Amino acid sequence: MITTENLSKKYGSQTVLNIESLEIPKGQSFGLVGNNGAGKTTFFSLLLDLIQPTTGHIINNEVQVNKSEDWKPFTASFIDESFLIGYLTPEEYFYFVGDLRGRNKADVDALLSTFEDFFHGEILGQKKYLRDLSKGNQKKVGIVASFIGNPEVVILDEPFANLDPTTQIRLKGIIKELAAKQNVTVLVSSHDLMHVTEVCERIVVLNKGEIVKDIQTSTQTLKELETFFAG
Amino acid sequence: MFKHFINLQWKSFFRSSSFGKGLALKIVMIFFGIYMIGALVFVGGFLYEILRKLFPDQAPMWVLSRYLVYWILIELFFRYFLQKLPVMDIKPLLSFPIKKSTITHYILGKSGFSGYNALALFLFVPFGVVLLFNGYPVLNVVLWLVSIFAIVLCINYVNFLVNKSDKALGIIGGIIVLQYGLDYFQILPVKDFFGPIFHGLYQYPIAVLVPVALAILAYFLNYKLLKNKLFLDASLKTKSKEAKTSDLTWTKRFGDMGTFLQLDLKMIWRNKRTKAQVFISLLFVFYGLIFYTQEVYANMIPMFAFLGIFMTGIFLSNFGQFIPAWDSGYYSMMMSQNIPLRKYLESKATLISVSVVAMFLLTIPYVYFGWEALAINFGSAIYNLGVNIPVILFFGSFNKKRIDLDKSPFGNMQGTSSTQFLIMLPVLGLPILIFTGAYYLISMEAAVIILSLLGVIGFALKNYLLDRITEQYRRKKYGMIAGFKEKNS
């Protein structure tokens, strides 16, 4: 599904990302871990064509992302709050995203009804603008918005941060189901080793922009990661 | 303790983002500041002469005293918009071992040094100096100035007391209008009533104690009120208004563009700064009154072209120059979504087109000052529609400065860079130049026709131009995303 070749990003003389090759097959739940500055967000930004690669390229379902925009219809993402429009209510935001993805109000409502649990009654019908919601609730909106329109690739940067424990557990279920049942490629980054090992079939560790580990998740994975990060 | 506070204040001032702005902008802002102060000092210096000329049979001090009540009310009215108690600044201090009373004194004391208080002094101190030169007794004048400053402080603190609901604003505005009405129709002599009171401040130096006492009283009322409210959930919480969902389904008639049109309308209506732009633009309809009514300009036809371009294009330039920075808060989302950039730009163009047509319709009454005004405004509107809209959208692609929509609209220069000054040249200057040239070489009729023709040509090429602009936006995409992410630029 996603092929990375010779990808690097430099700011001046500083290399922030350098990935020789990385292949993510369709329907995989893929986890990216690493300390601050490891290049996780840089990789996602490159994948979304928000920054330009210094060398190399990423191919998303046969579309080279920095050459064509045809990857946009089947790729959805939530990177940070800057993906939200503060002066809209959650409903309006969902409908807006739905519009962009060719889904009408009824489609969006149908999808939202399956997330009622996840929202925990704090999102819909609150008469609040997104800018007035708490960080965690904003995150919920952004994450769910990225599921609108049956995307084939979903990219979530730090989805577990700021969420309350109940929601974290529910989100893990949702992500697992997306990859297993709907064959969606899910890319997740996290600082929480426990969450990623639980959710992802495969975990890649970035350190200073380089891939240092590429693990198929097993029962030993958490131990392995903990020993690695304990340094 | 106060040493630390002063230190904090100093740093917040010199490290504020406005200080890091580009040099050109800094110079313009300094220039504007000096101009304001200069104008106030100038008026203050000549006020004595002016009042003596206007009311030759009354003492200037007496005349001024009669109007002071209006000054106080009007200043209170404007401060309501401009000045808020900066309670948010003290949030980080709350958890430190500092007494609440100290924090309260700090924040209230700080507001006493606000620039708004100095403005009145720039006006009244020169006036006082002129009084001294005219042989007025020193003691009376000096203590009168002290009284005036005490009144300014009263205004300062009373503002914080009433600055809580919009009702207060309505009441103040109502009192101003009512007083003026009573005065004007000579129902109640308001000026005659308040005149002697304020004149007393000058006449009896001991009266200075009254405004000083009032200022102290206002300060302590604030102190008492605020000290009990220094909790995160009471006054320090930023109020969130209840969201109103608006049904804008009629925008669907515009097809794909409707989605963005709906978003733009919501953006304009739900954010302070964009909303202010709309009101300011509407007010500029009256700009023409200043010029059309003056004999001096009656024969300056090029001036009319300026008015035409300016009045019909005020929203175009005010709003358009910051496209797409209005969307800077979520620009990276827009760029990673399945968004047809072209439709996005088209929606902005439509919105501005509507504003140009609306502004033109509003300027039609100026036909009262001669059909030339109408003809020129019409030509200008067509030119704005056809040429200036693509031009301003094109220059928008050079915008890289973030705009936080939620910041106060007054004196907010966020998002401004040298691009904005460059934009105004072709948008305002070029059509006036073309018009003036054609007017002197041929005739006014020809000049209007040429402007309209250029507009029509631009309109005919609209699709082509929008395509090119879309490409330009695509090329500049990465720079914009990076620029819009910088919070303190």
UniProtKB/TrEMBL annotation, chain A:
Keywords: ATP-binding, Nucleotide-binding, Transport. InterPro entries: AAA+_ATPase, ABC_transporter-like_ATP-bd, ABC_transporter-like_CS, ABC_Transporter_VariousFunc, P-loop_NTPase. GO terms for molecular function: ATP binding; ATP hydrolysis activity. SMART domains: AAA. The keyword Cell inner membrane does not apply. Pfam families: ABC_tran. Residues 2-225 form the ABC transporter domain. It comes from the Bacteria. This is ABC transporter ATP-binding protein. It comes from Flagellimonas hymeniacidonis.
From TrEMBL, chain B:
It comes from the Bacteria. InterPro entries: DUF5687. Keywords: Membrane, Transmembrane, Transmembrane helix. The chain crosses the membrane at residues 23-48, 60-82, 116-136, 142-162, 169-189, 201-221, 276-294, 300-326, 347-369, 381-400, 421-442, 448-466. This is Uncharacterized protein. It comes from Flagellimonas hymeniacidonis. The lineage of its organism: Bacteria, Pseudomonadati, Bacteroidota, Flavobacteriia, Flavobacteriales.
